[in-house]
Protein 1
Amino acid sequence: MKALFHFIKSYFALLMVGLVFAWASGSILVYRNRTAPPGATVLRIGHWQLEASVRDAINEMARRYREIHPNVYVVQDAIPEGVYGQWVSTQLLGGTAPDIVQVGAMLPWNIWLSYYNRYFIPISREVNRANPYNRGTELEHTPFRQTYKDGMRTAYVDEMQEYVSIPLSQFGIRIFYNKDLLKRLTGLDAAPEDYREFLRACERIASQKDERGNHYIPIAGSQYHFGMWDSMMFDPLTYGAVRKADFNRDGFVGNDELYTAIKTGRLGMKFPPFEAKFRMLREVTDHFQPGYTGLTRDEAVFLFAQQKAVFMTTGTWDARSLQKQAEGRFEVGVMDFPVPAADDDYYGPIIEGRNYERPGGGFAFGITRTSRNPELALDFLLFMASQAQNEELNRIIGWIPCILGTEMDPMLEAFEPHLEGIYSAMNLWLGGETATKWMQLYSAYQVDQVSYDGLVEQFEPFYKEQGYKDFMEQQRDWRRGMHQNERFLAGIRARALASEGEEAESAWVKYRALTTSRQIWAELTHNRQVQLIEKGPDLEAVGPYEYSPAVLKKIRERIKKEK
Amino acid sequence: MNPKPVKLSQIKHHWEIYLFILPVVILIGLFQYYPASSGIFHSFFRWNGSDISEFRGLENYIDLLKNTEFWNSFKLAFILGAWNVIKMIPALFVAVAIHRCRNERMQFLYRTLFVVPMVIPGLVVVLIWRSFFFEATAGYLNRFLLWSGLFDVLARLDSFLNWGGIFVEGRMPAWLGDPRLIVTACIVWGFPWVGSFAVLTHLAKLQSIPKDIYEAAEIDGVGWWTKFTKVELPLIMGSIYLLLVFVIIDTIKDAGMILALAGIHGGPAGNATVPALFMIRKAFLDQQMGYACAVGIILTIVVMILQKFSTLVMDPESMNARQRGVFRGLMVLMAAGFLAWRYAGDGVQNLTVVATVLIVLSLPYEWIRLLWPSRPQAIPVHHEGSGVSPMGESPGDRYMRRAFERHSDPVYRALSAAGSWLLRFVKHAYVWLVLAFAFLPLYLMIIVSVKNNEQFYLAPATITQPMFWENWQTAWDMVTPTVANSLFISTSSTLLTLGLALCGAYFFARLRVPASGFLWNALLIMMMMPAIANLVPLFILLRDMSLLNTLAALIIVGASGGQIFGIFVLRNFIQDTPQDLFEAAEIDGANHFQQLKMIVVPLSGPILGTVGVMHFIAAWNDFVLPLIVMRDHARLPVMVQLLRMAGEYIKLWGPLMAGYAIASIPIIILFVFSMKLFIKGLTEGAVKG
């Protein structure tokens, strides 16, 4: 006994280390076995939705799916937004990405595009077949993509001419407001729809104090919420740039088109619609609480829930939780983003309408090429996108289902998208150095560290000069997609050559149509842009929807003659 | 003892000693040298780590030199480095204050009390500062500024000095949201900046000062300040220099804490971007791996230059006059090149700053040394030949006579006693004040861990009822698997490191066999190379070896880096072991394995303990590599899990804080149990000053 005691005393530290090591090893083994039993097929799904209800909903889907496929276990990797971009990049690059990955945000679009090309399985063929999990419903024989409320438009990647993801929910963004507080502080029964009225209401709110002597905050904001104001309210002011920069005349101004327009001098940062955006940004963010750029999403929600702020913007994803937090204390209203009136002195001539909202789906997932079970991954996504399961999934989360014939929470009806409107035409994000520079200057502008003139002075020359490299990088990414597309087209051509009759006819039509739309027009557009840029500034040039001075002169002369 | 030289012809009798270094060579070659050389290679390519690899020559480097953000990141690193040097002062004072405690129990109590809050993982402290102190609307920093009236002072200064409205009445500054404040936040966090390693190193050095010196000083009537400046400071200067080098270089190459505090984009306007963070962003967000490799190479070069510079300042004799001249000439040439480039109108703005730094670095280091007193001269010394005073009394005698007269004076004695009491009071008050600040994060962690969110929002810093102890259960469920992973990784990595380092150190310390000089130099170069600079190629290597998302990757990479420092420390220790012992063992027929087992291992307990504790803590606290290479929740180390928990949309503060506390407990226990061993190891030369 004495010897044992002596032994323990002498080797106490080593024994402790041994014990701790044994416990750690045991725990690791136990925990791994708990995740999925040995021999089970594990489907991993990575996403950034850290709301508890999302995890619960996916778990419920996994449980239901296991009823059909008893050996399949779904494991979630829920990653915070702040590190999701880096996480997904390293996992894709390292070949360790989960089978299913949430896509479309947290990284610049050009990076996603390159990832889609390299690391994701296109599902264009599959989306044209019926979803087997819709059997017994009115959607039984409908091609999968047409079972979506938006025809699955948001899942289509133009640059790749492929579908690469399956959306599971539909989102909308609105302004939430405290009805009781608004009435008490401003006397208004309803939320102001006009922009100037909205600003006046904010001023009235800011001038009043609560029982502790603190000023009320008109708008609860954070860096997270700022993005929504930016895209829903400030960005549409820039729509006027479409006339000068929509070179391919598809109705949108891509980042490549905007670069081409600015580089060739057709547009400048001092373009009035661009200036208007920045002016509105300043006017509205002056009513955010101080230091909002340093606050997190939940801190802003807290201010709103504590009735210290009247307005807050957020999306359908927060609607249920906000209602719950306000229950029994105050009534939550949902309003649209206020728009300047047409006769507004400054914004009137610039604003052309309300922000257009795609009725498309979000919460989209792609299947990675490194997946060991890609068919199973697709099957699970189809399961979640079936009419019954999609309704249930979104019911648990509190979001809007994206499949036709599903029912949603009546509270979410205010989020029905505006199908008529305008959209942003100021996408300066080319990736690389210009993106970093833009991000830095933009956040400096948000806190009033730099004026708009200063921002333009610092950014525009840099963008023109350094942006060329980023622009060309984007062109290379597009060309890589073209190579893949050529392989796809070769397959169709081979089928056309190998078959006869109607099948051959159909394949040839498809081949010609796709070659024209995906290869020839795209090649022409891109070549034209590169040519324009390489030729240098052409200040005399006009935008795609503008008449040149010579043409205008001719028109005037003709009108004169006709008169 | 110096290593015994072994000629090539004698190698057949000692060939087995190469087996000691073989695993070290394999690990370092594979996980350190291969990524480093791959990094150099790929820095000349436009490489995305996957399917794009196009040769660009020097274009990556040219682009980098033109990149304002890159230069700004270095500027910030130097600013933070300078501040980190200033931040060393509180730790030094704390060590001296503890050391001066005459009561041994009090000294032990202080030592123990200091260790507990100081060993809370740095990441946990950062996250607490981020959530509690820097929060804009109700954070403690803003509350303190308001309460103390400092806010008004700052607001006046703001308007007087035209800071641009950072401090404006009625508007709380957003420390992490304002581009103008983010750098200050990076400096302020962690107040009072008393790190356990620094305090314990200083303490170990102070404890090694012979008591005779103190007794002699006291007999001579030396005051407390003179004792500090003339006795203690010069004698612990070695450890201060060493920490200084560590601090500057760590700041230049660190990315983790800034990443946790400001995020991967370097906070608002990217103003908190340090070079390593810039590199990570380029590699893993922008997919510019080749460019990131070039950043890593430049980072390595800068760190090496800094290290060389520090060595030269500490020991200018290590270079001969010619070498120094060439070194300085090169720096002047580079500076001239940068200035010429700048003024040639190429639009590169910040190279003037770099050129200035280079010119300063090229100045003769002796000038800098002259600024520093090299020899303490506390008491007047009677020099022979200095003559005697006209009264026939030497200066020394006169000094002693006056001191004796002073001490005979009752008023002086009373004043001296009061002064001594006051000094003791100030000393203890200072220690308790620093302790209070040091314990604040721990206090908040514990208090908040038993609150629900409502209680937290209403009264974050005081005890509220009821207490939600179930938060600890929730946290335990959330972090247990990751704590187990971290324990497994840290313990395995530490054991592997110690084993390899001991064998490697034995190889270098015992014999000078062919190639040992080459290998030693190769090891020294690795010591200077910042590990983070090789992150990108290391990631690719781990991918190619199918080690991504495995605990083995973290263990092996941790051990391959950690053993370098271990070998360096242990080699000195083994060299100090009497040669007779080895010779006697050899006569008795002991081979090298037996010599290692029978002589080195039994003697090196404390030093192995110190190296082991340091490595364990480093492995426990590391989160940059795991953040990059790990995927599965079941395999995450605890630090990454904490970072993820802090990123939840709606934070559950109670379980979150309980999770932080649980993550800190193993390190606190480790330090409490090993503190004695650790200090003994430091005193015996683990960190030679």
Protein 2
Amino acid sequence: MAQRNLGTVIGFEFIRTVTKRRFWIGTLAVPVMIAIVFGLIFLSNSTTDTAAEAQKSAQFTIAYTDASGLITAEVAAVFGARPAESPAAGVRAVQSGTVVAYFDFPATPETTSVRVYGKDQGIFENGKYAAVAQAMLSRAVEQKISSPQLSTLAAGKVQVETLTYEGSKESGGLGSVIPPLFFLVIFYGLIVLLAGQMLNSTLEEKENRVTEMILTTLKPTTLIAGKVIALFGIGLVQMVVFLSPVIIGRVFFPEQLSLSALDLPPLAFDPVRMTVGFLILAGGFALFTTTLVAIGAVMPTAKEAGNFMGVMMALIFVPFYAVALVVSDPHAMIVQIFTYFPFSAPVTALLRNGFGSLSLPEAGIVIVILFAGAAVMLRLAVRLFQYGSISYTSKVNIRTALRSGSRRAAGDTTPTPVT
Amino acid sequence: MGEARVHISGFRMDFGDTTVIRDLSFDVHAGETFGFLGSNGSGKTTTIRALLGIYEPTAGILHINGRDFKPEHGDRLGYLPEERGLYKKEKVIDIMTYFGRLKGMERRAARQWSLEYLDRVALADKAGSLLDKLSSGQQQKVQLGVTIMNNPELLILDEPTKGFDPVNRRLLMDIIAEQKRGGATVVMVTHQMEEVERLCDRVILLKDGVSEAYGTIDAVQNKYGGRIIRIKHGGSIPRSPHYEVMLQETNYAELSITDTTDEADILKDLVDAGVTVRSFTTTKVSLEDIFIRVYGAQNNPVPAFAGDGT
């Protein structure tokens, strides 16, 4: 029966959330915004590329001086550039409007800036002067090298693939860091997006006075476990929706979205780290959810409960103050404290797991701490729910609630006026 | 007399240093309608909550069907708590189906039953509405429906008519009668004495956490005088060891017979004492009279304002 009711609670809680219009408005708002940003990037990239090409090939009157000797008359002719008598004469020619731009190529362009002077044509149009100057110099260098291969190499357009080893075993490098860090992203997403819902999940029974009817048909443990599981499912739905435009963009439109610039190495999915990451995520989620549910059970209204949410949010961001230390020196004392303190453990351990500095024994301890903490908080949440959910108008005395030694709630407060 | 559906023995409930219930014992038999009466603060709701496992009793046995109640035994329990409500932001049909499922009904059966019930109470067109879009009276009907889902064998109704309009009160009474006819045991916690007299087989009166009276309504009425004489008269009513003057107005009095004296003898004594009797009727003492007699004494006079010098 308990299992039947658990399924019923999960189904009810999940379906009533995901069938709400406001849930989808909130959930879809994020990917829509991401899609809009991507769209703007796409448009911007197209415009920029077009503009860059146009600028490179822009035809306008140019004067130049070349102390390096690299610019040949042939190259200058391609760009319609004429030599100036001196830098001063070149600048004067721009100022007088005789030419649109003047380029001053120094003797050592590899160390000294090429100075470009031009007629002001607006902040965006002015970019073409530098583009054309660079194009002239590149063309001149290519001509000098007289080998397309060497020209490409000289331009630094070299692809490098790195392979590292842990002992004789090939390590994943950056590609192995990213997948476990997804769990950190998911953790943040779940907590940030669902914290309010977690907090309010049991408050709803209290505020709507449903508790007594519920408590006579359902064990509070079943109710709360059902709510936690349903919230996890709801969170996963949200994460999938949030990530969908990123995945679609990465898979189908990498060039258009300029994601190739962020080209990631082949992702390596280390099964051990992925499993550890998942367990830390699950344990951390369970711990935070049960804690928020317990807070909700104590408070008489959502408004009062909301004050505590800020504290919980702070706890998941605190480890980021020491993120450099977490990555560079995982054995520092503060990192160790963050690793094993239950409420900072999920973020710290997920970071360390991502960067490969969380050993298996350490991971085991963290996972045990998180699940044990979640179990304790679940019991506390259940006790407080039993006790607090019929305390309709006042805060629950936690000490009294904890002192009650059995399944059922009693104690020395009067939870609600009794008749 | 059926088996004990509810058995409470030696029940004691302390909240810190305050004892709310002390040594309470009573049974509710299968198939009967039982009135659980008491003034505000007398411990009725506390007893019900302890019986249903919401509170842990300090001492005593509280059994339903011969065992401690646990939520997993709640499939055939219909409980209408004093503090009541449902999920306001959900559709009526979804709420009812959910509670039906929690009570062990199959989804389809729960849904079907709910639709039939809503049709019966003229809310068929509200099945797809959010609960908070319904009027207060309509919400009460839904709450009643949830209470009687899955054909409960035990109905516990804590202040069932509280907040109900007359139409829903009638519906509730019809439902209680219907459930009773169907073999359900009904426990009513209420202040509505007329309803208790009309519906209940037996009652218990709780005062300051102890049983003040317990038994059939006749037995309780007999305990508190049993018979009342209502008399329209001229002259003054004399004192007598056979009755107590409960009410004395101009030309009207109510006398509570305090012994086994026959009403005819009392009438003769009154006439002999020079009282002009215009009408003389005997009735049983009402539960309301008993209630007022038992609990009226608890009401202290309104204290004088400290600053008024009195």
Protein 3
Amino acid sequence: MSNRDRIRSTLAGAAGIVFVSLILGLAVNAALPGGVTFLTPPPSPPGEPLDFVKVWEAFDGRDAVFIDARTADEYEYGHIPGAINVPWLDRDRHLPALRREIPPDRKIIVYCDGEECQASNNLSAWLKDRGWKQVYVFKEGYPSWLAAGMEFTKGKAP
Amino acid sequence: MAGGGDGVHERESPVTAGLRFRRAIALLSRLALGAVFIYASYDKLNGSQLFVDAVDNYRLLPRMLLHPFAIILPWVQFVTGICLVAGALVPAAALVSAGMYAMFLAAMASAIIRGLDISCGCFNLTDEGQRVAWGSLWPRALGLIASIYVMAASNVFEWPLSRLLRSGKGNGKETL
């Protein structure tokens, strides 16, 4: 067998391996439930906005997880009690912990520094993209929480 | 009769011993590469959302390719691993293996250069896993070298390494 033939048969074999893998991947993905869809879904819109009263009710009834999308320094200076800090620019690093701690059907309320701040909108869409179904945005954010005289906590994220 | 009966062993020439040693290294490389690919693919074969996240964290692929890539790549790893362990289509499997390791190296180096602090997504998807850092590159570089070694030992290319591996017998037909 000439050098050219050996290279040709190697390339054909490699293409065969990739083709068989493609068929197996499609078949198993179609046959077994539980996996992700083969086609990537379109990007999710930001979470539905909640007004202050709804946010307070969720806080008082402990029926939501609060996520603070501000920076670690801002979070340390003061945050809603029990909130988890997931800075927008550092979100990837927090994803494994979020997957461990928050079930996909749990209600989540994301906030940042108020109407002007986009981090809560962005983070809520990012969370919905990753499978959390009930994600809401507290649009007025932390400044309105403080202005209403609500309790807050200081300190770093655990 | 002196020198001609059973139980008298001819001394193995140093060249043949060297050839056997190199072939043993190639065999071990092939089995190790295959085992690593099978192990790496095991948790991801059914389209894991965690693996989609891991791929997305590198911020290299357009969104529409994330799911197809995360579904197909583990199967390419698995089939390649099976071929390498079973000794089927070895040159082709080694070529695919080299391609994957080159891709992993490029993706990781790119993430480090862009300052991304992300999980590797290589084996452990269930917790923080291994972070991408300069130290994560050398095992992939070793995998790339091992893949090229297996390819060369399979007589795919007339490289100096191929000729070196064949030296000793002289007929140029030995393969793994």
